[in-house]
Amino acid sequence: MSNVTKGKVVGFAYHLRNSQGETLDESSDPMEYLHGYHNIIPGLEKEMEGLKIGDKKSVVVPPAEGYGEYDEKLVYEIPRTNFPPDEELVPGSQFRADTENGPVALFVQEIVGENVIMNGNHPLAGETLNFEIEIHTIREASKDEMEHGHSHGPDGHHHH
Ligand code: ZN
User: What is the pLDDT of residue 105?
Assistant: First the structure.
C-alpha cells in the first residue's frame, strides 16, 4: 500500500468552501498532481503527505498557506484608454502584465466610468479555504513527469 510521498502522482477529489460555508469549487473528476513539487497550494500539499487511497480528510488552509493575504496595494485604477479598443473588458477577465518583479496575473474587478479597476490579488486571496478531500489514486511518476516537475494526463498528454 503506497502513501502520498514526494514523487508520487496523486489523484484526489475535493470540495472547497469558504469560511461562510459557500462552495467555491468542486472537482468533477479527480484531479491529478505530482506531490512535493509545489503544484498545489502549500497548506493543502503538506496535509496530503502520508495519506493512502480511500483516505478522506478535512483541511483548513489559512490565506498565508493558500492564495495569499489580500493586498490593497495590488488594486489599480487604469484608464480604459490604456487598453486596446477591441479588448473585451468584463469583470473576471484575466490579463498578464509585465512588471519589474516579473509577470503578474491581474483580473478585471469592475468598470467605473472611464476607468478599469484591475486587481492583482488572486481571486481567492484573503480566503480561509476549507477543503474536503478524498484520495482516489496514487502512482509512481514517470521519468518525464519527474523531469518536468508536474503530472501528465493518462495518455501522456501535456498540460502546460
Ligand atoms: Zn510536462
Answer: 87
Domain 8-66+125-148 CATH assignment equals 1.10.3720.10: no
For the chain, residues with pLDDT lower than 70 are 1, 155-160
User: Residue 155: its pLDDT value, please?
Assistant: 67
Q: How far is the CA of 151 from the centre of ligand 1 (A)?
A: 7
Rounded to the nearest angstrom, the distance between the alpha carbon of 153 and the centre of ligand 1 is 9
The DSSP string of 81-117 is GGS-TT----TT-EEEEEETTEEEEEEEEEEETTEEE
Question: What pLDDT shows up at residue 157?
Answer: 63
CA–centroid distance, 130 to ligand 1, in Å, is 29
